[in-house]
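Box 3.1 A note on notation
Throughout this textbook, protein chains are presented in two layers. The first layer is the amino acid sequence; the second is a token string describing backbone geometry. Keep the layers aligned when reading.
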Amino acid sequence: MTNMTDHATRMIKLPDGYNAHARVYHANPCRGAVLYIHGIQSHCGWYDQSARRMQTAGFTVLAPDRRGSGQNTVRRGHADSTGQLVDDAIASLDQLKEITDHPKIHLVGISWGGKLVAATHIARPESTASICMITPGLFPLVGVSKAEMFRIGMSMLHNPDKLYDIPLNDPALFTSDPEWLEFLKNDPLQIHQATAGFYLASRRMDKIVNKLHHAPPVPLHLMLAADERIIDNDKTTEFVRKLNWPDIRFSNYPNSRHTLEFDPDREQFFTDLVDWLEHTNSTNSEQSIV
């Protein structure tokens, strides 16, 4: 039986010396390791419930706050480049390997974090046990206007730290649950703006994600909300199907909006997430024996 001790706070030194806040949900014994990447506006605290469920099932979870988000107060909303964001994720991955002594890591990415876990796998496929994309931001329905994109582009030339609103500031985009709507309205740690530098880095990451078709296949789980208002489910599903990887699972939650953690089907979501990790753990064990 797993002994659960809630979570511990850890600071991760990123390659450029930036100290990033993270939560570690230690499982003892540890059956596997999960790197849990949040979205553009959120932070690791949003996903405490699902992290605890994975921990209870015997998976040690490392949930970092992305640089400039959550409890990271230095250069809020900023990243210098796509490469910097991917290097940050790899630094977290390597920390998790040291913590758990597991050579392969389950990559779980939510919303914008779905792009980053894809890019991380492309960069370090030998370290990936599986990928789980939860309402991934590969094909957004909501985005900045063309005029705003032009202004962002101009800022990259003269002021890459200039902040622009993230067009996701309506809590109803994320959930319909009154309690969680209130939480989102009052959460002091979420970010509502990102810099021109971050926007450009995120846009360039899309080109990297398109290379997923040429990356080594691993088990992949796509989890979508039927009442989705932020991403295009059809385009996302088509993209994943065209990978033609041998072990792909699709889950869709009929009563949920973008943040499955906050909506009516969350218990089924938690169950499916843990079941996926257990399935891929078994698959990896069988392959290593062979």
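Helices lie at 48-56, 82-100, 112-123, 146-158, 178-186, 196-209, 233-241, 266-289. The chain has a mean pLDDT of 93.
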